[in-house]
Fold this sequence. Notes:
Bound molecules: fe (ii) ion
Distance between the termini: 45 Å
Radius of gyration: 17 Å
Amino acid sequence: MKFIFASDLHANLPALEAFLAYLDKEGLAGLPLYFLGDYVNLGPFPEETVSLLRSIPAKVFLAGNHDRYVINEHALDHNPYFGSPEGVVHCRWTRSQLSPESLQWLKDLKVRHSFAEGPWKIDLVHGRHGSDEETLDEKGLEADRRIIYVCGHTHVPRVQAVRSCRIYNPGSLGKPLDRDNRASFGILEIDGDRESFTVVRIPYDIERAVRALADREVPWRLGIINSLRTAVYTDEE
Ligand SMILES: [Fe+2]
């Protein structure tokens, strides 16, 4: 059985469209599909991205920290997660672009989901358990059980075995930060006791996203443009 995982889309419509076209072309479109959060912020197409996502029959959409910021009045006034006040200005811009229906969709997202496949439990979370701003680490995991933890948030793919359990991260669909600027997602394959996780990279039209950031005068866009092109984190203006 195969499962598709994607995370950290960040309002990048060209990346989402390329991902869906790839699933169609490769005959993967009917597989169970799980999104691990961060649909909005740091990209030019928040409403278009959420509208398209709302039409996709995915199994689960988890919430990410950026989704939480955009729906949270307090985070729109003060947010220590961002090193620059421009980050809060950017959050407010994202919120201003979203329809009431899309804002409600973001508010209704869950933070954790798990299911079973054969002898494996698959446990999904955006960052780590109890925090959507931190990274899942090996400490505190039930490493003697057959659990596959799938997380996002870091924007960097991860394939790790810790005794009986696994930690997988599909990387970022819309804003990779591992020096490879192609969209990233993961395919989990389970066959009885055996399982494997494959990270897939697909090119998409980065410059279309860049043009939209400029045309829409998105606050904080210079750092976002640099990150989209280089897949390296920067918050410089
Ligand atoms: Fe993210």
